[in-house]
TrEMBL record:
Membrane-crossing residue ranges in chain numbering: 16-34
Highest taxon in the source lineage: Eukaryota
Taxonomic source organism: Arundo donax (Giant reed)
Keywords: Membrane, Transmembrane, Transmembrane helix
Protein name in the entry: Hda102
Amino acid sequence: MTLALLGFSKQLLPRLLRHICLVLLFFNVGLIRWQGTV
């Protein structure tokens, strides 16, 4: 059970981290543009 979970998390974690990085990147760009217009 634990071994299967570990393999699953190893497969899922890079995808999750990439998704979080993309969200943060878009958020930062949006924030900078919003501050530039105000």
